[in-house]
Amino acid sequence: MINPRPADSLDKGAGASAPAVYRVRNLRKTFARHSVTALENTSFDLPRGSFTAVIGASGCGKSTLLKIMAGLVSPSEGSVMLAGKPVLGTRSDIGMMFQHAVLLPWKTTIENILMPIEIQRGKSAAKAKRADAEALMDLVGLKGFEDAYPSGGMQQRASICRMLITEPEILLLDEPFSALDELVREHMNMELQRICLARQATAFLITHSIPEAVLLSDTIFVMGSRPGRILEEVKIDLPRPRTLDMMLEPRFAELVAYIRNRLDLGVNHGN
Amino acid sequence: MAIEVTRAPASVALAEEFPSTVWKEEDSLIDRIPRPVAIVGLGLAIVAIWHFVTMSGVINAIILPTPAMVWTQIATVGLNLATGGYMLAALWITAQEVLIGFVIAAVLGTALGTLVGETKFGARAVMPYLVAIDTMPKIAFAPLFVAWLGFGLESKIALATFVSVFPIIVGTASGLQAAEENAHMLFRTMGASRLQSLLKMKFPFGLPQIFTGLKIAALSVMAGAITAEFLGGGKGFGELIRVAASQLDTARVFALIIYLSLVGLTMYGAVMLAERKIVFWQRRQSSE
């Protein structure tokens, strides 16, 4: 029932509905100091507006892949093209979220959200964008907390707004919800889907949660370790928009079970 | 299939077989003494022991004066200070040395700490030299400073700066490493320049550690100034102590030291107050 697409089908135009915004070819990353190959033979396209999740055991090179895509570290070999231009450093059309919200505790919530604008275009430009920030805060349920200092539960929501304030076309998400409790996490998942659909954003999510990956993604990359590489690309054929109720459907359970099985294989046999 | 649900009972009367298991989780007796009582009580106990030791005649009053003798000297010195006598002028000289020394140490320390904490060159090349100098007995440099800068304020300020600058360097250097890796990545993805990352992220995240360095410096800067006064003369409080000691007036030495410690306390308090004001988010976070 589930047909993983073999990785060598790239460049054959198989099933590509939207033009690719990210094009990744033959990435390899070795860390000389530990003589470890973190990533090998990694090639894929991300169509515009698609949602892709990466799942795999710790140390399979997920974070390395994300950092290379973000232009935070250089690959040892290979090519990353974003919107037709080579990625040779960080770029303003990328928004990122991390496991920790990393808000600046000396700034109010709205000042934190406007931080990318302040960095790129100065304080007065940030002030001028205040209405946009307020609209974003409204979107994630932070209305009324503009001038409060960010506290526990609000932090990850504020960091979503901070990512979106520059209207990035690409969202790179490094386990953004893994520190949240289950109910909040599900709510945030739904928020994220709504934002991605509304903005036609291309999202790339690293997660440890198989249900989260299935719930949000069009495609899931299952990664194996030593060396880190993509073992399979699994198409998630659930209709959009996804709802939390879909998690109860047999197809959802089937997809989760399939991916869990692939991960187990990766762990037990290194394949 | 129906889901079986049982409602939790509101309240149940305790039966014989269920004795109350409420138990005390309080601290032991000594930890329950409130802070003001603990401070005053310990102080009084020390003075009382001191009093009885000196009254018993075991120790000569020239070696260890009685609390009453010290108290008289505290009053005498206090009166001289309050009426603007020569002691006030001496205290002002020492206070100047301490203040200027501290300000120079703060500026120099954060600058060197930034060099060490922000650049690889600083960490690789500058830090080893700083560590080497820090291991030297810095007080021993006093004669050198006197030889280089003379018997005026300058040599005292120099030694005060020299003994207090290292904790600020270390605090700044380690403070700049305090921000987590995600914060660095975040600022890079936002397109921040190195200077922007330093000023808007690394430095503020490091402020608590920088202030730790400043507080240690505020406590040691006085030792530098007084040592330099002992060895380099001048008209400061250190000279008053030296003269009183040479006259075997130990009660006065004690009194002078107590007034000096008040200056030190004021310095420390000022730095703490500045920390509360500037690192205002720290208390909020620790209370969360």
Helix content of chain A: 25-40%
Structural class by sheet pairing and helices of chain B? mainly alpha
CATH class of the domain at 4-88 and 198-268 in chain A: Alpha Beta
CA-based gyration radius of chain A: 19 Å
**Mean pLDDT over the full residue set of chain A:** 87
The number of helical segments of chain A is 9
The CATH architecture of the domain at 4-88 and 198-268 in chain A comes to 3-Layer(aba) Sandwich
- Stretches of chain A where pLDDT falls below 50 for ≥5 residues? 11-16
Tell me the major beta sheet of chain A.
6 strands, mixed
The end-to-end span of chain A amounts to 21 Å
Shape of chain A: globular
Taking the alpha carbons of the first and last residues of chain B, their distance comes to 44 Å
Give the arrangement of secondary structure elements:
The complex is a heterodimer of chains A (271) and B (288).
Chain A: E1 20-31, E2 36-47, E3 51-56, H1 62-70, E4 77-82, E5 85-86, E6 94-97, H2 109-113, H3 115-121, H4 123-128, H5 130-139, H6 155-164, E7 170-174, H7 182-199, E8 202-206, H8 210-216, E9 219-224, E10 229-235, H9 250-269
Parallel strand pairs in A: 3-8, 3-9, 6-7, 7-8
Antiparallel strand pairs in A: 1-2, 1-4, 4-5, 9-10
Chain B: H1 35-55, H2 67-82, H3 86-118, H4 120-135, H5 142-149, H6 153-175, H7 181-189, H8 194-232, H9 237-246, H10 250-278, H11 280-287
Helix pairs in contact in B: 2-3, 2-10, 3-4, 3-6, 3-8, 3-9, 5-6, 5-8, 6-8, 8-9, 8-10, 9-10, 10-11
